[in-house]
Amino acid sequence: MTQQYEMAEPIETESITAEVLAPPPTKRGWKITAMVGVVAALGGLGIGWVIGANTGSNSGAPLGGAMSVADQQTMIERAVAETGVGEIQDAGKSLFIDGMGKDANSGDISWTRAELVLDALEVPDSLMSKLGQTRALDGTLTDTWTAEDGTELRASWTYHPDAGMDIVIETVESD
Question: What is the DSSP string of 33-50?
């Protein structure tokens, strides 16, 4: 069977005139396009239904209960991500803040920067006062608190003018 082509509009440029051949219009072209669209839509709905049914969740979360990255992070990881202060340890269950002291080999975190992450961890004012009043003679001190989301945290810290204030914050594991 020979395909017939109709002459389309001539294309003119500055020095060349050409005629482009266009395929003849068909009556069934729109039907095929519509059928492909319907099949694609139904296929997408079917895949979505299968994924939702396989997760067994009706929580309304994307993909039947998938959690966002922020939801999967510990409170300590979120605080460090938000402030850029401290060193995450123990797979996100603890944080080390190496405070700045007089010695060249002491930490590099100023008290002002340490306050940023301590605030993000919802350290209570009473503990902030204890941190601010710690002397070198006091040794290692410890305190605990519970954040608004129910996370229980424990801080242990030491201070020496030469070494600075070093703070370890840990998530307290419930029994």
Answer: HHHHHHHHHHHHHHHHHH
CA–CA distance, 107 with 135 (Å, rounded to integer): 17
List the pLDDT tens digit at each of the 175 positions of the chain: 555 555 555 555 555 554 544 445 555 555 555 555 555 555 555 555 444 444 444 444 444 444 455 567 999 999 999 999 999 999 999 999 999 999 999 999 999 999 999 999 999 999 999 999 999 999 999 999 999 999 999 999 999 999 999 999 999 987 6
Determine whether domain 69-171 maps to CATH 3.30.450: yes
Say how far residue 134 (Cα) sits from the centre of its chain: 36
- The CATH 3.30.450 portion of the chain extends over 69-171
**Rounded Cα–Cα distance for residues 60 and 43 (Å):** 21
- Token pair in block for residue 108: 């590099």
Instruction: Please say whether the beta carbons of 46 and 54 come within 8 A.
Output: no
pTM for the predicted model, two decimal places: 0.60
Contact between 141 and 157 (Cβ < 8 Å): yes
97 is written with which tokens?
Answer: 């803040």
